[in-house]
Design goal:
The complex is a heterodimer of chains A (149) and B (471). Chain A is mainly α. Chain A folds into two domains: 40 residues; 104 residues, Cytochrome Bc1 Complex, Chain D, domain 2 (Orthogonal Bundle). In chain A, 54% of the residues lie in helices and 3% in strands. Chain A has five helices and two strands. Chain A has a two-stranded antiparallel sheet with strand order 1-2. In chain A, a hairpin with a 2-residue loop joins β1 and β2. Chain B contains 16 helices and two strands. The chains are: A mainly alpha (149), B mainly alpha (471). At the A-B interface, α1, α2, β1, β2 and α5 of A face α2, α4, α7, α8 and α9 of B.
Chain lengths: 149, 471
Amino acid sequence: MAERFTKSMARNIYLGGSTFFILLFLVLTFDTQSRAMPERDNRDQLTEEVVRGKHVWENNNCVGCHSIMGEGAYFAPELANVFDRRGGGNSEVFKAYMNAWMNAMPTNVPGRRQMPNFNLTDQQINDLSEFLEWTSKVDDNGWPPNIEG
Amino acid sequence: MKYESQRVAMPYFIFALVLFAGQIVFGLVLGMQYVVGDFLFPEIPFNVARMVHTNLLIVWLLFGFMGATYYLVPEEAQTELYSPLLAWILFWVFAVAGTLTILGYLFVDYATLADITMNKLLPTMGREFLEQPTVTKIGIALVVVGFLFNIMMTALKGRKTVVNIVLITGLIGLAVLWLFSFYNPSNLTTDKYFWWFVVHLWVEGVWELIMAAILAYVLIKLTGVDREVIEKWLYVIIAMALITGIIGTGHHFFWIGPPEYWLWLGSVFSALEPLPFFMMVLFAFTMINRRKRNHPNKAAILWAMGTAVMAFLGAGVWGFLHTLAPINYYTHGTQLTAAHGHMAFYGAYVMIVLTIISYAVPIMRGRPYGNSNTAQVVEMWGFWLMTISMVFITLFLTGAGILQIWLQRIPDSGEALSFMATQDNIALFYWARMIAGCFFMAGLVVYFGSFFIKGQASFDEEVRGATIQDA
Protein backbone atom coordinates (compact mmCIF):
# COMPACT_ATOMS: atom_id res chain seq x y z
CA MET A 1 0.00 0.00 0.00
CA ALA A 2 1.20 3.48 -0.77
CA GLU A 3 3.01 5.33 1.98
CA ARG A 4 0.43 8.11 1.85
CA PHE A 5 -2.02 5.67 3.35
CA THR A 6 -0.86 5.51 6.94
CA LYS A 7 -1.60 3.10 9.74
CA SER A 8 -3.61 5.69 11.63
CA MET A 9 -5.80 6.26 8.59
CA ALA A 10 -6.41 2.53 8.44
CA ARG A 11 -7.25 2.49 12.13
CA ASN A 12 -9.69 5.37 11.73
CA ILE A 13 -11.50 3.60 8.91
CA TYR A 14 -11.80 0.56 11.15
CA LEU A 15 -13.05 2.47 14.18
CA GLY A 16 -15.29 4.86 12.29
CA GLY A 17 -16.63 2.25 9.90
CA SER A 18 -17.41 -0.36 12.49
CA THR A 19 -18.99 2.15 14.89
CA PHE A 20 -21.20 3.52 12.14
CA PHE A 21 -22.36 0.12 10.98
CA ILE A 22 -22.95 -1.21 14.48
CA LEU A 23 -25.19 1.80 15.15
CA LEU A 24 -26.96 1.39 11.82
CA PHE A 25 -27.50 -2.29 12.58
CA LEU A 26 -29.02 -1.41 15.96
CA VAL A 27 -31.38 1.12 14.38
CA LEU A 28 -32.46 -1.39 11.73
CA THR A 29 -32.93 -4.05 14.39
CA PHE A 30 -35.13 -1.70 16.37
CA ASP A 31 -37.20 -0.92 13.30
CA THR A 32 -37.48 -4.57 12.31
CA GLN A 33 -38.44 -5.77 15.75
CA SER A 34 -40.73 -2.99 16.90
CA ARG A 35 -42.40 -1.81 13.70
CA ALA A 36 -42.18 -4.39 10.95
CA MET A 37 -42.29 -7.81 12.56
CA PRO A 38 -45.54 -7.49 14.52
CA GLU A 39 -47.37 -7.07 11.21
CA ARG A 40 -45.64 -10.04 9.65
CA ASP A 41 -45.43 -12.77 12.27
CA ASN A 42 -49.02 -12.83 13.61
CA ARG A 43 -47.78 -12.56 17.16
CA ASP A 44 -51.34 -12.02 18.36
CA GLN A 45 -51.90 -15.68 17.48
CA LEU A 46 -49.05 -16.90 19.68
CA THR A 47 -51.30 -19.01 21.86
CA GLU A 48 -50.19 -21.06 24.84
CA GLU A 49 -50.34 -24.12 22.64
CA VAL A 50 -48.00 -22.58 20.06
CA VAL A 51 -45.54 -21.60 22.79
CA ARG A 52 -45.61 -25.10 24.29
CA GLY A 53 -45.25 -26.52 20.81
CA LYS A 54 -42.05 -24.58 20.31
CA HIS A 55 -40.66 -26.22 23.43
CA VAL A 56 -41.63 -29.64 22.13
CA TRP A 57 -39.81 -28.74 18.92
CA GLU A 58 -36.72 -27.69 20.88
CA ASN A 59 -36.65 -30.40 23.54
CA ASN A 60 -36.59 -33.10 20.89
CA ASN A 61 -33.97 -31.38 18.74
CA CYS A 62 -36.16 -31.52 15.64
CA VAL A 63 -33.83 -29.02 13.96
CA GLY A 64 -31.08 -31.66 14.13
CA CYS A 65 -32.55 -33.33 11.03
CA HIS A 66 -35.21 -30.95 9.64
CA SER A 67 -35.05 -27.38 8.51
CA ILE A 68 -37.60 -24.74 9.46
CA MET A 69 -37.72 -21.68 7.23
CA GLY A 70 -34.67 -23.17 5.56
CA GLU A 71 -32.58 -23.23 8.73
CA GLY A 72 -31.43 -26.35 10.48
CA ALA A 73 -30.21 -29.64 9.09
CA TYR A 74 -30.81 -30.79 5.53
CA PHE A 75 -31.36 -34.48 6.26
CA ALA A 76 -35.14 -34.39 6.44
CA PRO A 77 -37.89 -32.25 4.86
CA GLU A 78 -38.52 -28.56 5.43
CA LEU A 79 -41.27 -28.06 8.02
CA ALA A 80 -42.19 -24.37 7.88
CA ASN A 81 -44.75 -25.21 5.21
CA VAL A 82 -45.60 -28.77 6.26
CA PHE A 83 -48.98 -27.50 7.41
CA ASP A 84 -49.77 -26.64 3.81
CA ARG A 85 -48.03 -29.67 2.32
CA ARG A 86 -49.52 -32.36 4.55
CA GLY A 87 -52.53 -30.63 6.02
CA GLY A 88 -53.66 -28.78 2.93
CA GLY A 89 -54.06 -25.71 5.12
CA ASN A 90 -56.68 -27.41 7.31
CA SER A 91 -55.97 -27.70 11.06
CA GLU A 92 -58.01 -30.86 11.61
CA VAL A 93 -56.52 -32.68 8.65
CA PHE A 94 -53.05 -31.63 9.71
CA LYS A 95 -53.48 -32.80 13.29
CA ALA A 96 -54.79 -36.15 12.16
CA TYR A 97 -51.80 -36.45 9.85
CA MET A 98 -49.37 -35.49 12.62
CA ASN A 99 -50.86 -38.05 15.00
CA ALA A 100 -50.60 -40.82 12.49
CA TRP A 101 -47.11 -39.81 11.42
CA MET A 102 -45.52 -39.41 14.85
CA ASN A 103 -46.93 -42.72 16.05
CA ALA A 104 -45.80 -44.61 12.95
CA MET A 105 -42.15 -43.74 13.51
CA PRO A 106 -39.68 -45.30 13.01
CA THR A 107 -40.62 -47.08 9.81
CA ASN A 108 -37.71 -49.51 10.14
CA VAL A 109 -37.54 -49.87 6.37
CA PRO A 110 -34.02 -51.22 5.78
CA GLY A 111 -31.62 -48.67 4.32
CA ARG A 112 -34.07 -45.76 4.60
CA ARG A 113 -33.54 -42.69 6.74
CA GLN A 114 -35.15 -43.26 10.11
CA MET A 115 -36.99 -40.81 12.32
CA PRO A 116 -36.99 -41.86 15.99
CA ASN A 117 -40.21 -42.22 17.91
CA PHE A 118 -40.18 -39.40 20.42
CA ASN A 119 -43.00 -40.87 22.51
CA LEU A 120 -44.93 -37.62 22.46
CA THR A 121 -48.24 -37.40 24.27
CA ASP A 122 -51.38 -36.47 22.35
CA GLN A 123 -51.19 -33.01 23.82
CA GLN A 124 -47.57 -32.58 22.76
CA ILE A 125 -48.45 -33.62 19.21
CA ASN A 126 -51.32 -31.16 19.28
CA ASP A 127 -49.04 -28.36 20.54
CA LEU A 128 -46.37 -29.16 17.98
CA SER A 129 -48.99 -29.04 15.23
CA GLU A 130 -50.19 -25.65 16.45
CA PHE A 131 -46.60 -24.41 16.44
CA LEU A 132 -46.03 -25.59 12.87
CA GLU A 133 -49.34 -24.10 11.75
CA TRP A 134 -48.43 -20.75 13.28
CA THR A 135 -44.99 -20.91 11.64
CA SER A 136 -46.51 -21.59 8.22
CA LYS A 137 -48.41 -18.33 8.42
CA VAL A 138 -45.47 -16.02 9.04
CA ASP A 139 -44.89 -13.60 6.16
CA ASP A 140 -41.46 -14.78 5.04
CA ASN A 141 -41.35 -13.04 1.66
CA GLY A 142 -42.97 -15.94 -0.10
CA TRP A 143 -40.42 -18.62 0.72
CA PRO A 144 -40.21 -21.55 -0.08
CA PRO A 145 -40.63 -21.41 -3.87
CA ASN A 146 -43.02 -24.36 -3.99
CA ILE A 147 -44.94 -26.73 -1.75
CA GLU A 148 -42.08 -29.25 -1.49
CA GLY A 149 -40.07 -26.83 0.65
CA MET B 1 9.24 -18.92 22.97
CA LYS B 2 10.26 -15.98 25.08
CA TYR B 3 8.09 -16.44 28.15
CA GLU B 4 7.69 -19.64 30.10
CA SER B 5 3.98 -19.06 30.69
CA GLN B 6 3.27 -19.28 26.95
CA ARG B 7 3.59 -23.02 27.43
CA VAL B 8 0.06 -23.16 28.88
CA ALA B 9 -1.10 -23.02 25.26
CA MET B 10 0.05 -26.61 24.81
CA PRO B 11 -2.81 -28.46 26.56
CA TYR B 12 -5.30 -26.26 24.73
CA PHE B 13 -3.81 -27.21 21.37
CA ILE B 14 -3.59 -30.90 22.20
CA PHE B 15 -7.17 -31.07 23.42
CA ALA B 16 -8.34 -29.10 20.38
CA LEU B 17 -6.76 -31.67 18.08
CA VAL B 18 -8.30 -34.57 19.99
CA LEU B 19 -11.76 -33.02 19.60
CA PHE B 20 -10.99 -32.34 15.93
CA ALA B 21 -10.47 -36.08 15.43
CA GLY B 22 -13.81 -36.75 17.14
CA GLN B 23 -15.49 -34.22 14.89
CA ILE B 24 -14.23 -35.99 11.78
CA VAL B 25 -15.32 -39.43 13.04
CA PHE B 26 -18.84 -38.14 13.50
CA GLY B 27 -18.64 -36.41 10.14
CA LEU B 28 -18.05 -39.82 8.58
CA VAL B 29 -21.02 -41.25 10.50
CA LEU B 30 -23.22 -38.46 9.10
CA GLY B 31 -21.88 -38.95 5.60
CA MET B 32 -22.73 -42.63 5.88
CA GLN B 33 -26.24 -41.88 7.14
CA TYR B 34 -26.82 -39.74 4.06
CA VAL B 35 -26.39 -42.83 1.90
CA VAL B 36 -27.41 -45.68 4.20
CA GLY B 37 -30.28 -44.04 6.02
CA ASP B 38 -30.51 -46.47 8.96
CA PHE B 39 -26.76 -46.63 9.62
CA LEU B 40 -26.27 -46.84 13.42
CA PHE B 41 -30.00 -46.31 13.99
CA PRO B 42 -31.37 -46.26 16.65
CA GLU B 43 -28.12 -46.07 18.66
CA ILE B 44 -26.93 -42.80 17.09
CA PRO B 45 -29.74 -41.01 15.22
CA PHE B 46 -28.69 -38.39 12.68
CA ASN B 47 -29.59 -35.45 14.90
CA VAL B 48 -27.32 -36.71 17.68
CA ALA B 49 -24.38 -37.32 15.37
CA ARG B 50 -24.84 -33.91 13.79
CA MET B 51 -25.02 -32.18 17.14
CA VAL B 52 -21.78 -33.91 18.18
CA HIS B 53 -20.14 -33.04 14.84
CA THR B 54 -20.98 -29.33 14.97
CA ASN B 55 -20.56 -28.83 18.71
CA LEU B 56 -17.15 -30.52 18.68
CA LEU B 57 -16.16 -28.14 15.90
CA ILE B 58 -17.23 -25.07 17.85
CA VAL B 59 -15.61 -26.24 21.07
CA TRP B 60 -12.31 -27.29 19.53
CA LEU B 61 -12.06 -24.01 17.64
CA LEU B 62 -12.61 -22.20 20.94
CA PHE B 63 -9.84 -24.30 22.48
CA GLY B 64 -7.66 -23.43 19.50
CA PHE B 65 -8.40 -19.70 19.80
CA MET B 66 -7.65 -19.81 23.52
CA GLY B 67 -4.40 -21.69 22.95
CA ALA B 68 -3.40 -19.19 20.28
CA THR B 69 -4.22 -16.33 22.62
CA TYR B 70 -2.28 -17.75 25.57
CA TYR B 71 0.67 -18.27 23.27
CA LEU B 72 0.80 -14.96 21.49
CA VAL B 73 -0.52 -12.37 23.93
CA PRO B 74 2.37 -12.68 26.43
CA GLU B 75 4.93 -12.56 23.63
CA GLU B 76 3.30 -9.52 22.06
CA ALA B 77 2.94 -7.81 25.43
CA GLN B 78 6.49 -8.83 26.35
CA THR B 79 5.50 -10.08 29.77
CA GLU B 80 4.58 -13.33 31.47
CA LEU B 81 0.94 -14.39 31.51
CA TYR B 82 -0.95 -12.85 34.44
CA SER B 83 -1.96 -16.23 35.88
CA PRO B 84 -0.87 -19.53 34.31
CA LEU B 85 -2.68 -21.29 37.17
CA LEU B 86 -6.01 -19.73 36.20
CA ALA B 87 -5.35 -20.78 32.60
CA TRP B 88 -4.81 -24.36 33.76
CA ILE B 89 -7.91 -24.37 35.97
CA LEU B 90 -10.06 -23.01 33.16
CA PHE B 91 -8.58 -25.59 30.81
CA TRP B 92 -9.77 -28.44 33.02
CA VAL B 93 -13.15 -26.85 33.69
CA PHE B 94 -13.78 -26.37 29.97
CA ALA B 95 -12.41 -29.78 29.01
CA VAL B 96 -14.50 -31.63 31.60
CA ALA B 97 -17.66 -29.62 30.89
CA GLY B 98 -17.22 -30.05 27.15
CA THR B 99 -16.63 -33.77 27.42
CA LEU B 100 -19.61 -34.27 29.72
CA THR B 101 -21.84 -32.38 27.33
CA ILE B 102 -20.77 -34.52 24.37
CA LEU B 103 -21.24 -37.70 26.42
CA GLY B 104 -24.65 -36.38 27.42
CA TYR B 105 -25.61 -36.00 23.76
CA LEU B 106 -24.46 -39.53 23.01
CA PHE B 107 -25.79 -41.46 25.97
CA VAL B 108 -28.83 -39.53 27.16
CA ASP B 109 -31.96 -39.02 25.12
CA TYR B 110 -32.09 -35.30 24.23
CA ALA B 111 -35.48 -34.65 25.83
CA THR B 112 -34.23 -36.34 29.00
CA LEU B 113 -31.06 -34.28 28.87
CA ALA B 114 -33.19 -31.13 28.66
CA ASP B 115 -35.17 -32.39 31.60
CA ILE B 116 -32.33 -33.31 33.96
CA THR B 117 -30.38 -30.13 33.18
CA MET B 118 -33.50 -28.15 34.06
CA ASN B 119 -33.87 -26.51 30.69
CA LYS B 120 -37.31 -25.41 31.86
CA LEU B 121 -35.85 -22.78 34.16
CA LEU B 122 -34.16 -20.99 31.28
CA PRO B 123 -34.97 -22.74 28.01
CA THR B 124 -32.10 -22.31 25.57
CA MET B 125 -31.71 -25.81 24.13
CA GLY B 126 -32.76 -27.34 20.84
CA ARG B 127 -31.63 -24.60 18.51
CA GLU B 128 -29.08 -25.33 15.80
CA PHE B 129 -25.48 -25.08 17.12
CA LEU B 130 -26.84 -23.90 20.48
CA GLU B 131 -27.97 -27.36 21.57
CA GLN B 132 -25.85 -27.26 24.74
CA PRO B 133 -27.71 -27.56 28.03
CA THR B 134 -28.19 -24.15 29.63
CA VAL B 135 -25.76 -25.07 32.38
CA THR B 136 -23.07 -25.76 29.77
CA LYS B 137 -23.81 -22.40 28.17
CA ILE B 138 -23.34 -20.72 31.53
CA GLY B 139 -20.11 -22.70 31.97
CA ILE B 140 -18.81 -21.51 28.60
CA ALA B 141 -19.65 -17.92 29.55
CA LEU B 142 -17.78 -18.23 32.86
CA VAL B 143 -14.74 -19.87 31.27
CA VAL B 144 -14.59 -17.14 28.64
CA VAL B 145 -14.90 -14.39 31.26
CA GLY B 146 -12.05 -15.90 33.33
CA PHE B 147 -9.99 -16.31 30.19
CA LEU B 148 -10.59 -12.71 29.12
CA PHE B 149 -9.69 -11.45 32.59
CA ASN B 150 -6.40 -13.35 32.49
CA ILE B 151 -5.58 -12.12 29.01
CA MET B 152 -6.51 -8.50 29.62
CA MET B 153 -4.50 -8.34 32.83
CA THR B 154 -1.57 -9.65 30.82
CA ALA B 155 -2.03 -7.28 27.92
CA LEU B 156 -2.56 -4.25 30.15
CA LYS B 157 0.67 -4.70 32.08
CA GLY B 158 2.76 -5.03 28.93
CA ARG B 159 3.35 -3.58 25.50
CA LYS B 160 0.14 -2.77 23.65
CA THR B 161 0.43 -4.03 20.10
CA VAL B 162 -2.19 -3.83 17.39
CA VAL B 163 -2.22 -7.64 17.15
CA ASN B 164 -3.12 -7.90 20.83
CA ILE B 165 -5.71 -5.14 20.66
CA VAL B 166 -7.46 -6.64 17.64
CA LEU B 167 -7.34 -10.17 19.03
CA ILE B 168 -8.76 -9.09 22.37
CA THR B 169 -11.43 -6.97 20.70
CA GLY B 170 -12.49 -10.05 18.76
CA LEU B 171 -12.55 -12.17 21.91
CA ILE B 172 -14.61 -9.60 23.81
CA GLY B 173 -17.03 -9.53 20.91
CA LEU B 174 -17.21 -13.31 21.05
CA ALA B 175 -18.07 -13.20 24.74
CA VAL B 176 -20.66 -10.42 24.45
CA LEU B 177 -22.44 -11.99 21.49
CA TRP B 178 -22.54 -15.34 23.30
CA LEU B 179 -25.02 -13.74 25.68
CA PHE B 180 -27.62 -13.84 22.92
CA SER B 181 -27.55 -17.63 23.19
CA PHE B 182 -29.48 -17.18 26.46
CA TYR B 183 -32.25 -15.25 24.75
CA ASN B 184 -34.88 -17.60 23.45
CA PRO B 185 -38.23 -15.84 22.97
CA SER B 186 -41.41 -17.82 22.31
CA ASN B 187 -41.80 -16.09 18.98
CA LEU B 188 -39.84 -18.20 16.49
CA THR B 189 -39.09 -15.29 14.17
CA THR B 190 -37.62 -13.18 16.98
CA ASP B 191 -35.73 -16.24 18.23
CA LYS B 192 -34.22 -16.76 14.79
CA TYR B 193 -33.39 -13.08 14.36
CA PHE B 194 -31.29 -12.92 17.53
CA TRP B 195 -29.91 -16.44 17.07
CA TRP B 196 -28.00 -14.95 14.16
CA PHE B 197 -26.42 -12.44 16.55
CA VAL B 198 -24.45 -15.37 17.88
CA VAL B 199 -24.00 -17.39 14.74
CA HIS B 200 -23.45 -14.82 12.00
CA LEU B 201 -21.80 -12.13 14.08
CA TRP B 202 -19.36 -14.74 15.35
CA VAL B 203 -18.24 -16.33 12.12
CA GLU B 204 -18.71 -13.37 9.78
CA GLY B 205 -17.84 -10.77 12.37
CA VAL B 206 -15.68 -11.04 15.47
CA TRP B 207 -14.08 -14.38 14.56
CA GLU B 208 -12.63 -12.66 11.50
CA LEU B 209 -10.86 -10.27 13.88
CA ILE B 210 -9.45 -13.25 15.76
CA MET B 211 -8.40 -14.96 12.56
CA ALA B 212 -6.79 -11.85 11.09
CA ALA B 213 -4.90 -11.12 14.32
CA ILE B 214 -3.51 -14.66 14.54
CA LEU B 215 -2.55 -14.55 10.86
CA ALA B 216 -0.83 -11.18 11.35
CA TYR B 217 1.13 -12.51 14.33
CA VAL B 218 2.30 -15.61 12.46
CA LEU B 219 3.28 -13.51 9.43
CA ILE B 220 5.31 -11.12 11.60
CA LYS B 221 7.18 -14.10 13.02
CA LEU B 222 7.65 -16.02 9.80
CA THR B 223 8.49 -13.21 7.39
CA GLY B 224 10.20 -10.61 9.55
CA VAL B 225 8.28 -7.90 7.68
CA ASP B 226 8.07 -4.62 9.57
CA ARG B 227 5.29 -4.63 12.14
CA GLU B 228 4.04 -1.22 10.95
CA VAL B 229 3.25 -2.64 7.52
CA ILE B 230 1.51 -5.70 8.91
CA GLU B 231 -0.56 -3.69 11.36
CA LYS B 232 -1.79 -1.41 8.61
CA TRP B 233 -2.97 -4.41 6.61
CA LEU B 234 -4.60 -5.83 9.72
CA TYR B 235 -6.63 -2.67 10.29
CA VAL B 236 -7.79 -2.53 6.68
CA ILE B 237 -8.83 -6.20 6.72
CA ILE B 238 -10.84 -5.98 9.91
CA ALA B 239 -12.38 -2.69 8.81
CA MET B 240 -13.62 -4.45 5.65
CA ALA B 241 -14.81 -7.42 7.68
CA LEU B 242 -17.01 -5.34 9.98
CA ILE B 243 -18.18 -2.79 7.40
CA THR B 244 -19.48 -5.58 5.15
CA GLY B 245 -20.27 -8.25 7.72
CA ILE B 246 -22.48 -6.45 10.20
CA ILE B 247 -25.18 -5.34 7.80
CA GLY B 248 -24.33 -8.49 5.84
CA THR B 249 -26.19 -10.33 8.59
CA GLY B 250 -29.19 -9.33 6.51
CA HIS B 251 -28.58 -12.21 4.10
CA HIS B 252 -29.99 -14.44 6.85
CA PHE B 253 -33.09 -12.29 7.26
CA PHE B 254 -34.50 -12.89 3.78
CA TRP B 255 -36.91 -15.74 4.57
CA ILE B 256 -37.43 -15.82 8.33
CA GLY B 257 -39.89 -12.99 8.80
CA PRO B 258 -38.06 -9.62 8.77
CA PRO B 259 -39.23 -7.00 6.26
CA GLU B 260 -38.29 -6.71 2.63
CA TYR B 261 -35.63 -4.03 2.97
CA TRP B 262 -33.31 -6.76 4.25
CA LEU B 263 -33.45 -8.34 0.79
CA TRP B 264 -31.55 -5.32 -0.51
CA LEU B 265 -29.33 -4.64 2.47
CA GLY B 266 -28.40 -8.29 2.91
CA SER B 267 -27.67 -8.78 -0.78
CA VAL B 268 -25.55 -5.68 -1.26
CA PHE B 269 -23.48 -5.88 1.91
CA SER B 270 -22.94 -9.60 1.92
CA ALA B 271 -21.91 -9.44 -1.73
CA LEU B 272 -18.98 -7.38 -0.40
CA GLU B 273 -18.13 -9.89 2.32
CA PRO B 274 -15.54 -11.68 0.15
CA LEU B 275 -13.44 -8.47 0.22
CA PRO B 276 -11.78 -8.96 3.61
CA PHE B 277 -10.99 -12.55 2.71
CA PHE B 278 -9.54 -11.50 -0.61
CA MET B 279 -7.41 -8.95 1.22
CA MET B 280 -6.18 -11.69 3.52
CA VAL B 281 -4.92 -13.59 0.46
CA LEU B 282 -3.11 -10.48 -0.81
CA PHE B 283 -1.82 -9.84 2.70
CA ALA B 284 -0.36 -13.32 3.22
CA PHE B 285 1.21 -13.57 -0.21
CA THR B 286 2.59 -10.01 -0.24
CA MET B 287 4.15 -10.39 3.19
CA ILE B 288 5.70 -13.73 2.26
CA ASN B 289 7.07 -12.25 -0.99
CA ARG B 290 8.58 -9.36 0.89
CA ARG B 291 9.98 -11.58 3.63
CA LYS B 292 13.16 -10.47 5.31
CA ARG B 293 14.05 -13.99 6.41
CA ASN B 294 13.55 -17.51 5.19
CA HIS B 295 12.04 -19.16 8.21
CA PRO B 296 12.84 -22.89 8.17
CA ASN B 297 9.30 -23.78 9.30
CA LYS B 298 7.99 -24.21 5.75
CA ALA B 299 4.95 -26.08 6.97
CA ALA B 300 3.71 -23.11 8.98
CA ILE B 301 4.17 -20.85 5.95
CA LEU B 302 2.13 -23.30 3.87
CA TRP B 303 -0.68 -23.27 6.45
CA ALA B 304 -0.65 -19.46 6.57
CA MET B 305 -1.00 -19.19 2.79
CA GLY B 306 -3.48 -22.06 2.77
CA THR B 307 -5.82 -20.56 5.34
CA ALA B 308 -6.00 -17.27 3.45
CA VAL B 309 -6.74 -18.96 0.11
CA MET B 310 -9.21 -21.50 1.44
CA ALA B 311 -11.03 -18.93 3.57
CA PHE B 312 -11.42 -16.77 0.48
CA LEU B 313 -12.73 -19.70 -1.57
CA GLY B 314 -14.97 -21.18 1.12
CA ALA B 315 -16.28 -18.12 2.89
CA GLY B 316 -15.82 -15.62 0.07
CA VAL B 317 -16.54 -17.33 -3.24
CA TRP B 318 -18.87 -20.08 -2.03
CA GLY B 319 -20.66 -17.57 0.15
CA PHE B 320 -21.12 -15.16 -2.74
CA LEU B 321 -22.50 -17.95 -4.95
CA HIS B 322 -25.79 -17.96 -3.08
CA THR B 323 -25.92 -14.71 -1.16
CA LEU B 324 -27.98 -12.57 -3.55
CA ALA B 325 -31.64 -12.71 -2.56
CA PRO B 326 -33.07 -13.78 -5.97
CA ILE B 327 -30.61 -16.70 -6.04
CA ASN B 328 -30.88 -17.48 -2.35
CA TYR B 329 -34.64 -17.82 -2.78
CA TYR B 330 -33.91 -21.12 -4.55
CA THR B 331 -30.72 -22.20 -2.79
CA HIS B 332 -31.63 -21.43 0.84
CA GLY B 333 -31.31 -24.50 3.03
CA THR B 334 -30.08 -26.89 0.35
CA GLN B 335 -26.89 -28.89 0.07
CA LEU B 336 -25.31 -25.76 -1.41
CA THR B 337 -25.51 -24.23 2.05
CA ALA B 338 -23.77 -27.31 3.45
CA ALA B 339 -21.05 -27.07 0.79
CA HIS B 340 -20.36 -23.46 1.72
CA GLY B 341 -20.41 -24.22 5.44
CA HIS B 342 -17.84 -26.99 5.16
CA MET B 343 -15.26 -25.13 3.13
CA ALA B 344 -15.72 -21.84 4.96
CA PHE B 345 -15.21 -23.35 8.41
CA TYR B 346 -12.29 -25.45 7.25
CA GLY B 347 -10.57 -22.66 5.35
CA ALA B 348 -11.04 -19.84 7.77
CA TYR B 349 -11.12 -21.32 11.24
CA VAL B 350 -9.77 -24.87 11.17
CA MET B 351 -6.80 -23.80 9.11
CA ILE B 352 -5.96 -20.67 11.12
CA VAL B 353 -5.83 -22.80 14.28
CA LEU B 354 -3.66 -25.37 12.49
CA THR B 355 -1.45 -22.48 11.31
CA ILE B 356 -0.69 -21.25 14.80
CA ILE B 357 -0.27 -24.85 15.99
CA SER B 358 2.20 -25.47 13.18
CA TYR B 359 4.16 -22.39 14.18
CA ALA B 360 3.96 -22.56 17.98
CA VAL B 361 4.01 -26.24 18.90
CA PRO B 362 7.53 -26.96 17.55
CA ILE B 363 8.81 -23.96 19.52
CA MET B 364 7.17 -25.18 22.70
CA ARG B 365 8.77 -28.56 22.06
CA GLY B 366 12.22 -26.98 21.97
CA ARG B 367 12.56 -26.66 18.20
CA PRO B 368 12.66 -22.88 17.71
CA TYR B 369 13.15 -23.14 13.96
CA GLY B 370 10.52 -25.75 13.31
CA ASN B 371 10.38 -29.53 13.10
CA SER B 372 12.78 -31.71 11.16
CA ASN B 373 12.43 -31.75 7.41
CA THR B 374 10.89 -35.21 7.48
CA ALA B 375 8.26 -34.17 10.00
CA GLN B 376 7.49 -31.07 7.95
CA VAL B 377 7.13 -33.08 4.77
CA VAL B 378 4.67 -35.41 6.49
CA GLU B 379 2.79 -32.43 7.93
CA MET B 380 2.54 -30.92 4.46
CA TRP B 381 1.19 -34.22 3.13
CA GLY B 382 -1.47 -33.93 5.82
CA PHE B 383 -2.15 -30.36 4.69
CA TRP B 384 -2.65 -31.33 1.06
CA LEU B 385 -4.66 -34.46 1.77
CA MET B 386 -7.07 -32.66 4.08
CA THR B 387 -7.31 -29.54 1.95
CA ILE B 388 -7.83 -31.30 -1.38
CA SER B 389 -10.33 -33.67 0.25
CA MET B 390 -12.23 -30.66 1.55
CA VAL B 391 -12.26 -29.14 -1.92
CA PHE B 392 -13.82 -32.35 -3.22
CA ILE B 393 -16.31 -32.58 -0.35
CA THR B 394 -17.35 -29.04 -1.25
CA LEU B 395 -17.56 -29.74 -4.97
CA PHE B 396 -19.66 -32.89 -4.48
CA LEU B 397 -22.01 -31.13 -2.08
CA THR B 398 -22.26 -28.28 -4.56
CA GLY B 399 -23.21 -30.78 -7.26
CA ALA B 400 -25.77 -32.33 -4.95
CA GLY B 401 -27.11 -28.88 -4.11
CA ILE B 402 -27.47 -27.74 -7.71
CA LEU B 403 -29.33 -30.93 -8.61
CA GLN B 404 -31.51 -30.61 -5.54
CA ILE B 405 -32.44 -27.07 -6.53
CA TRP B 406 -33.13 -28.18 -10.09
CA LEU B 407 -35.40 -31.06 -9.08
CA GLN B 408 -37.05 -29.81 -5.91
CA ARG B 409 -37.00 -26.02 -5.89
CA ILE B 410 -37.28 -24.64 -9.40
CA PRO B 411 -40.33 -26.57 -10.76
CA ASP B 412 -43.80 -25.43 -9.73
CA SER B 413 -45.80 -27.16 -7.02
CA GLY B 414 -47.13 -30.40 -8.40
CA GLU B 415 -44.21 -30.86 -10.77
CA ALA B 416 -41.40 -30.52 -8.25
CA LEU B 417 -39.93 -33.68 -6.77
CA SER B 418 -40.48 -34.19 -3.05
CA PHE B 419 -37.57 -33.77 -0.65
CA MET B 420 -37.02 -37.48 -0.11
CA ALA B 421 -37.40 -38.38 -3.79
CA THR B 422 -34.82 -35.71 -4.58
CA GLN B 423 -32.44 -37.15 -2.00
CA ASP B 424 -32.63 -40.55 -3.72
CA ASN B 425 -31.80 -38.91 -7.02
CA ILE B 426 -28.64 -37.26 -5.77
CA ALA B 427 -27.27 -40.21 -3.78
CA LEU B 428 -24.33 -40.61 -6.15
CA PHE B 429 -22.99 -37.24 -5.01
CA TYR B 430 -23.35 -38.28 -1.38
CA TRP B 431 -21.33 -41.43 -2.06
CA ALA B 432 -18.63 -39.35 -3.71
CA ARG B 433 -18.65 -36.97 -0.74
CA MET B 434 -18.30 -39.96 1.58
CA ILE B 435 -15.19 -41.14 -0.28
CA ALA B 436 -13.71 -37.64 -0.12
CA GLY B 437 -14.49 -37.67 3.62
CA CYS B 438 -12.48 -40.87 4.03
CA PHE B 439 -9.53 -39.21 2.32
CA PHE B 440 -9.91 -36.30 4.73
CA MET B 441 -9.69 -38.77 7.62
CA ALA B 442 -6.56 -40.26 6.06
CA GLY B 443 -5.10 -36.76 5.82
CA LEU B 444 -5.87 -36.18 9.47
CA VAL B 445 -4.07 -39.40 10.43
CA VAL B 446 -1.03 -38.36 8.40
CA TYR B 447 -1.14 -34.92 9.99
CA PHE B 448 -1.26 -36.44 13.48
CA GLY B 449 1.58 -38.77 12.50
CA SER B 450 3.81 -35.77 11.77
CA PHE B 451 3.85 -34.92 15.47
CA PHE B 452 5.55 -38.22 16.27
CA ILE B 453 8.37 -37.97 13.76
CA LYS B 454 11.67 -37.09 15.34
CA GLY B 455 14.82 -36.48 13.33
CA GLN B 456 17.18 -33.52 13.21
CA ALA B 457 15.40 -30.27 14.03
CA SER B 458 15.75 -27.44 11.55
CA PHE B 459 18.83 -25.29 11.89
CA ASP B 460 19.07 -21.60 12.27
CA GLU B 461 17.15 -19.50 9.79
CA GLU B 462 18.65 -17.75 6.85
CA VAL B 463 18.25 -14.02 7.22
CA ARG B 464 17.81 -12.01 4.05
CA GLY B 465 19.49 -8.63 4.09
CA ALA B 466 20.19 -6.86 7.34
CA THR B 467 19.31 -8.63 10.57
CA ILE B 468 16.18 -7.24 12.06
CA GLN B 469 14.94 -7.22 15.56
CA ASP B 470 12.19 -9.70 16.22
CA ALA B 471 9.80 -7.08 17.50
